[in-house]
Amino acid sequence: MRRLEGIALDLDEQTRLVRDIGSHNALILENHGLLTCGKTVRDAFELMYYLETACKIQVAAQSAGSSLIFPSEAVARRTAKQFEDIDPFIDERDWKALLRLLERRQSRYAA
Q1: How many CB atoms lie within 10 A of CB 44?
Q2: Which of 11, 17, 47, 61 sees the fewest Cβ atoms within 10 Å?
Q3: CA-to-CA distance for 62 and 95, rounded, in angstroms?
Q4: What's the pLDDT at 111?
Q5: What is the pLDDT of residues 55-111, one digit of tens each?
Q6: What is the value of pTM for the model shown?
Q7: Nearest to residue 33, comparing CAs of 13, 7, 63?
Q8: pLDDT tens sequence across 4-30
Q9: Cα separation, 104 vs 19, whole angstroms
Q10: What are the b/e assignments for 66-101, b being 16+ CB within 10 Å?
Q11: Confidence of residue 36 (pLDDT cuts 50, 70, 90)
């Protein structure tokens, strides 16, 4: 069901968002953007960063006018599993790089 409501300030809309995201950590809101959460701010930030990047890539690809090539279900599942089992060294390296990027773009984020 489509709802056009604006900013989620009403408690009933917030309740629906919580219900809709369920046990997942991301929700794509039609015409409103992305909603992410996680066990930590780090988890939510990383998920938002990569999800937004994926959305930008998809929009750019679609704007080229060619048909998109979608990965197989097996490739999608394998990739998801790789993110679940990510090496701690790589995970920490990504986080540090994202923090540096955030600090360059918005130095007052922690204020």
Answers
A1: 16
A2: 11
A3: 29
A4: 55
A5: 999 999 999 988 888 999 999 999 888 877 777 777 778 888 888 888 888 877 665
A6: 0.71
A7: 7
A8: 566 666 788 888 889 999 999 999 988
A9: 36
A10: eeeeeeeeeeeeeeeeeeeeeeeeeeeeeeeeeeee
A11: very high
- Rounded Cα gap, residues 96 and 102, in angstroms: 10
In the chain, DSSP finds a helix count (H) and a strand count (E) of 4, 2
Residue from 49, 48, 16, 50 nearest 35 by CA: 48
Furthest C-alpha separation in the chain = 44
At how many degrees (to 10) do helices 88-105 and 41-63 cross? 80
